[in-house]
Amino acid sequence: MQTAPGEATYEVGVLGLALSPKMIDGGEHTVVQLMLDDDRPGFDRTLIDCPLMAEIQTPAGDIVTRELFDHDGFRQRLHAERAAGGDEMRGVLLLTDGQLPPAYLRLAFLTIPVADTDGCVLAVVRSERDDLVVAIDAGRAAGSLADSEFRSLTTMIEQRHPG
């Protein structure tokens, strides 16, 4: 889908979204690609690397799944680490002909098949790093996150948005 001139999202430089299916580690995923126009006057430069979440919501607004978008800085670090033979960083690295996506594309890899999103709503939600940390701390305190999920989410936030 594309944004239209005059829409608030278009005016800050969001061109649109694309969804596609992808097999990752043997599981079906939905890849959400956010396309930005970083040459546009009025472009919100923070969209290049600020915390953004892709959320699949039911029509009632319940969250089915969510995932942090990656960004160019994270991809560059992940690519360099993998080229050096390291494996500390966690994330999906999508390459086209051996090349990283351009900085104006942000990707999220949702752990849900595209077919299972029928009737749902895709939302892109801007957040702040501190808000993400508070939310996962609250989830752990409430018992809705297992220790392994908490560690995984904490690692993801730290690697993509170091404090």
Q: Your description of this structure?
A:
The chain is an alpha+beta fold and 163 residues long. The chain is 27% helix and 28% strand. The chain contains 4 helices and 6 strands; from the N terminus they run H-E-E-E-E-H-E-E-H-H. The protein has helices spanning 8-11, 72-83, 129-142, 147-160; strands at residues 14-24, 27-36, 52-57, 63-68, 105-110, 121-126. The strands form 2 sheets. It has a 3-stranded antiparallel sheet. Strand 1 and strand 2 (27-36) form a beta hairpin. Helix 3 (129-142) runs antiparallel to helix 4 (147-160). 16% of the residues are buried.
Q: Could you name the key traits of this structure?
A:
about 160 residues; 4 helices; alpha+beta; about 30% strand; 3-stranded antiparallel β-sheet
Describe the secondary-structure layout.
Layout: H1 8-11, E1 14-24, E2 27-36, E3 52-57, E4 63-68, H2 72-83, E5 105-110, E6 121-126, H3 129-142, H4 147-160
Antiparallel strand pairs: 1-2, 2-5, 3-4, 3-6
The tally of helices reads 4
Unreliable segments (pLDDT under 50, ≥5 consecutive)? none
Report the average pLDDT across residues. 93
Kindly state the number of beta strands: 6
